[in-house]
Amino acid sequence: MIHTKEKQATSTEIQNLHLDISEIFYSIQGEGSYAGYPCIFIRLSGCNLNCNWCDTKYARINNKNKVNIANIIKTIKKYPANVVEITGGEPLLQENILYLINILHTQKNKILLETSGSLPISKIPQYVHIILDIKAPGSGESENNYFENLKMIKPDDDIKIVICDKTDFLWAIEISEKNNLINRKNPVILQPAFEKISPEALGEWIKKSGLSFKLGVQLQKYIYPNKKRGV
Length: 231
Hints:
Order of helices and strands: HEEEHEHEEEHEHEH
Number of strands: 9
Mean pLDDT: 92
Structural class: alpha/beta
Low-confidence stretches: 1-5
Helix content: 10-25%
Largest sheet: 9 strands, mixed
Radius of gyration: 17 Å
Strand content: 15-25%
Shape: globular
């Protein structure tokens, strides 16, 4: 995996480093390898994509809610957890997340970073657990996948593909075979688009394929069915 020098800053400089924040909240991680764990979420605003099934459209537009990194750290210290996910929107649009990542690491947090897969992950340190989305055709954004990321992602990181229909499923097989993802250490997660295809239907396709995919569901949609934000 390719890396650049970590972003570091003095305490004075951190007061002047900002990120555009959509929300910060404490919930149960609903997806990926850390599903079920209590997790602090730092959701950044602004996204370069517009997926058809996106359930956080309120975070797509940069809302200019600039919060300095010192205050972000102060906010998350209110919560009794050390698993922190940086998500969006698209967090890689904001370079200052590299400073945030460094501080979270020095404070012994387990850092998760969820990204759309449209931008390079080359600057992200190895200690970060990456959740990389690959956009299937049903998303409307499959042409924006940056497949070079698949050469940089670690074996323990998550690769996730949201599936809307059988076309998406067959596409996921094709992409996984083409990029040698079928037998990776951490299997590719296929996740049904909520209310577009049932977990049962996708599970049956996975079973019949005989391939080592992992069925994923959005636990937060079942734990907090009436909440749209903060989960």
